[in-house]
Amino acid sequence: MKYLKILYVQVLIGILLGIVTGLFFPAFFPAGKLISDTFINMIKMVIAPIIFFTIVLGITGAGNMKKVGRVGGKGILYFEIVSTLALIIGLFIANVFKPGKGIYIEGVSADKAAEYVEKGKEMNWAEFFAHIVPENIIGAFAKGDIIQILFFSILFAVGLMKLKGAGEGLVNSFTTINKVLFNILGVVMKLSPIGAFGGMAYTMGKFGISSLLVLGKFMLTFYITVIIFIFVVLNAIAKYYGFSLIKLLNYIKEEIFIVIGASSSEAVLPSVMQKLEKAGCDKTVVGLIIPTGYSFNLDGTTIYLSMAILFLAQVFNVELSMSQQITIVGILMVTSKGAAGVTGSGFIVLASTIAALKIIPLEGLALLIGVDRFMSEARSVTNFIGNAVATVVIARSEKAIDMDTYKKVVGG
Question: What confidence score (pLDDT) does residue 127 get?
Answer without folding.
Answer: 59
